[in-house]
Specification:
Layout: E1 17-21, H1 27-39, E2 55-59, H2 74-77, E3 79-83, E4 90-94, H3 95-101, H4 103-112, H5 119-125, E5 128-130, E6 144-145
Parallel strand pairs: 1-2, 1-6, 2-5
Antiparallel strand pairs: 3-4
Helix pairs in contact: 1-4, 3-4
């Protein structure tokens, strides 16, 4: 008897909506759980190279925590760099300022670092919705709370 490899069809993929409350949770550990759900690794039908994941809604992104002692906290020592491509175009922002101004970007960058850096990773990242406050416009989708 020959066994066949199962490859899911596009119509067979069930995409659910999952909600995560980031208040008081560690940034890196939360990002790994979100990346796990976005890739669909929590499903029994997971197949590498196939977008099997769910939509993820993150609320209270501004209240995420980071590790570190009081003398060397990641809030001050971790910096994000961006270059415009022009001479002298390096922009640097600390994690503390990033969480104050754009709390969604810090979490999005952490999740992006845990996804594949290719076409599939970019498509998967589009299913991540991040909000700094507890309010979100996705109540119609009836999201399930991630344990």
């Amino acid at each position: 008897m020959q066994q066949k490899t199962y490859y899911p069809k596009a119509a067979e993929i069930q995409r659910d909506w999952v909600m995560v409350d980031a208040e008081g949770q560690n940034l890196g550990r939360l990002a790994t759980r979100i990346a796990h759900v976005l890739l669909g690794k929590h499903k029994p039908t997971f197949t590498p190279g196939v977008e099997m994941g769910d939509f993820v809604i993150v609320v209270n992104a501004a209240k995420v925590t980071v590790t570190g002692t009081k003398t060397s906290s990641k809030l001050t020592s971790k910096v994000y760099n961006h270059h415009s491509g022009y001479p002298g175009g390096l922009k640097t922002i600390s994690l503390r300022d990033q969480l104050d101004r754009y709390p969604d970007r810090a979490l999005r960058d952490a999740v992006w670092g845990m996804l594949p850096h290719n076409r599939m990773g970019r498509a998967v990242l589009k299913r991540l919705k991040i909000y700094a406050t507890p309010d979100h416009p996705h109540a119609v989708q009836n999201p399930q709370v991630l344990k």
